[in-house]
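From the shared-data thread, chain only:
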Amino acid sequence: MCSLRKTPFRRLPWLSCLLLCHSHLFGQNDHPAKIRHVLILPIIARSIETGWSFGGAGSSTFHLKIHDTATRTSNLQALALYTTKSQFVVALNGSIYFPGERFIINQQLSYSSFPDKFWGLGNTAPDSSREPYKYKQYYVYLHPQSLIGRNLFLGLVYQFQRVFDTEFTAGGLFDKENVSGRHGYHVSGLGLSFTYDSRNNAFAPDRGTMMQFYFAHFNPLLGSDYQYTNFVLDLRQFIRVEGGQVLALQAYGFFNAGETPLRSLASLGGSSSMRGYYQGRFRDKDMGVLQAEYRIPVFWRFGLVGFGDIGNVGSNLSKINFDHLKYTFGGGIRLALNQSERLNLRLDYGINPKFLGGFYLQLGEAF
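Structure, as tokens:
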């Protein structure tokens, strides 16, 4: 279900966990020949950014061609959530794999009203500088890809974002640091992606490689208030170890050139990387993160995970170095809701260098 790719457009931390499981996901119908699973159910989630979240979701996992088990499972989700921190989000997202994976479409549409926190820009922003702010946002992400070689895809990336009804303290951090977009804006960008993907599963691969590079250029000719270019490099390796254990590795780089508005800046932390930091605890134009996760099946549908991350943000590439390097570590429990699709419910606890952190109750692996 919640199989959003990790993008610079902020993997939604509230796409999370099932409160109720349907028999199609957990029980007698757990069989790879099943063509379509449809769920409508209440959900409950938790992350550092949102606290507890409550709402409802509809989900479908399917193959476009009957009994096409060679093609990875397509998925679509729709949800509405409200959090204990007065945050609200509605979203439609998913990935559609056409037969033979000759064509793939990833999409995300969302609206959010989100009280958030801001500590300033840079990798040395102090804890004491925290300032609350609010915003509302519409977001569109479309990423169609076409197969051009064995496991090799060429794609088109389109992003649209409108941020409005922003509220912050006059004369505070936003004004002192002259943060672009603090009064609201919209951006529209178009770009290309190049992807090599040999992973054997859409939700929790145990072997294979993904190497993806993409960029999007935001320009007034496309209706954007700001002109800048965003570049993303995402490298993942999954290594099967004896006894069904898996070593998962990721290197992730996020870079901007030009005048980059607030919600398009690199944002360190969250449920998919640097777990243990509030998402956005450190913000700047550029970011680099390395993370590793070791996944161990224990018994029946249960498993254990240990993970560690290092990363940093900076105003340019030279600032992403070992000075003020950030790190997190932690562990978690996995419960396989659908063994054939490898769809897991995960409970993680991440810890940052000050031995502060938090729980994440999510559906699907971090990466």
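Residues 142 and 206 are 27 Å apart (CA to CA).
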